[in-house]
Amino acid sequence: xxxSTQDPEIESHPFxxxxxxxxxxxxxxxxxxxxxxxxxxxxxxxxxxxxxIIALVVTMGTFxxxxxxxxxxxxxxxxxxxxxxxxxxxxxxxxxYLVANAIILPISGWISSVIGRKNFYLISVVMFTVFSxxxxxxxxxxxLVVFRVLQGLSGGGLQPSVQAILxxxxxxxKRGMAMAVYTVAILCAPVLGPTLGGWITDNYSWRWIFYIxxxxxxxxxxxxxxxxxxxxxxxxxxxxxKGKKIRIDGTGLALVSxxxxxxxxxxxxxxxxxxxxxxxxxWTAIVAGIxxxxxxAWELYTPNPVVNLRLLKERxxxxxxxxVLGMYTALYASTxxxxxxxxxxxxxxxxxxxxxxxxxxxxxxLEVPFVGWLMSRGSDARRLIAMGIITMTAGTYWCSLxxxxxGEHSLVWPRIVQVMGLGMTTVPLSTIMFRFLPADQSSNAxxxxxxVRNEGGSIGIALSSTFLQRTTQQHQTYLAANISASNPxxxxxxxxxxxxxxxxxxxxxxxxxxxxxxxxxTQASLLAYMDQFRLFAYVLACLLPLVLLLKRPPKIIGKIxxxxx
Length: 565
Known about the structure:
The chain is an all-alpha fold. The protein folds into 3 domains: 26-236, MFS general substrate transporter like domains (Growth Hormone, Chain: A); 314-479 and 535-565, MFS general substrate transporter like domains (Growth Hormone, Chain: A, Up-down Bundle), CATH 1.20.1250.20; 480-532. It is built from 23 helices and 2 strands. It has helices at residues 51-67, 76-82, 87-90, 92-104, 108-115, 117-136, 141-155, 158-169, 172-203, 208-211, 213-227, 232-241, 250-269, 279-301, 315-344, 350-357, 359-376, 381-399, 408-432, 442-481, 488-499, 505-541, 544-547, and strands at 555-557, 560-562. Strand 1 (555-557) and strand 2 (560-562) form a beta hairpin. Helix 9 (172-203) packs antiparallel against helix 17 (359-376) and helix 15 (315-344) runs antiparallel to helix 16 (350-357). The model is unreliable at 1-37, 39-47 and 556-565 (pLDDT under 50).
């Protein structure tokens, strides 16, 4: 059945084209799975508990897992000292977790289809909690790294599982608000992680950054067991395969695991080891390239892929993933650059730098539910995404206009504007990603989406770190070349600096040159930071045309799906 009249709010606008018009029948009253039919036209599964209870329970586990991606950052010096390791060796505590996370994210959908989504989520929470406790009691650095790998493997599937659970638990008109709750968790956890980790480490012990997961994990496991149920389409698929031999895509699993692990190592350790000046990085990059190309070729044509890359043939999903990759590359690059800028060039301590960027997280907590409400009222997701990208671009470019004379409050606002833009886009992207995909592929889609988001962060940090160092050297070389005896302004600066220093003429001359050279280094660094902020603002601006290529999902009012004209 179809609405006989067009809703007055649905009129043509710049985003629409005739190819995007979608006709969807009235959602059936009985919950059943129709293969190949988009989620939007299928009824939500029968559930005993209110879906908001389900959302609260599963989001709690995700918040705990995402928090652990950043909570150990500030504790590395304490971990290294406690376990008699070098600072360089202690960074494997972070790298090992990220590598394990990258491996499990894309295959979480396949695991859910084999053992059930509820079972997979429950096992992930329990094992994550167990290995968090193991990290806390680790006697050596080697043991801690092993437990971090197991912790990352256990928790990596939580993010995509939550997105798939929310997509199935909520009807279309409420899915935007549900994704808003999830978005608040994944955006606020990385902001709170370093602050909470530093406070725990300073007041107690670094081991407690892992122990705090235990009570949260236990509660999450208990409530997950009580409230979560698998959707009908997943239950039906498991029943149909019951008694049949489970087909494991061993080749695809091996290629994906090796490729992602090697890529994460290259991105995380490349700058520290001088990229391709290091034999280790060179060979790891070669292995990553071969494995990823092989994985793509294999997964596209094998009958039962462990990662269903064929989902990228659906244009909304493809462009959503591309937009998220660019956004999180720019976001994490800025998150890396801004605190360093404040500490290295402006002399702020770590606590002050952290407090300067933290208000952005509070703004997000207030903004995201409002965006979810707009989605539930039928707002066009593409307009919100476009507004978000423009806002995020403006905030990032604003950072490039800062200088060394600005006050602390002037550093807060560009970050707030940037993160406001992110909040505008995350909920609509997470919502429309599922609209044109078959219901039985929601777990696979969520896994790929989460992987793209995490890899965007790794790429952003790696690129910003590398470009910052190299552009600083370029600017320093250029500025230093202009300080010579033939440049009267340069000589005047040296003489002014020398006059402010006591001692004989030779000492004053050397001291003056040293002071001028210090200014050259400072200005070179400032120019390099400005270049990076501009670069990532341009990256964000390039994402805007992709919004025009997104299909408009059918508008939901109550239970009726209206034509998207």
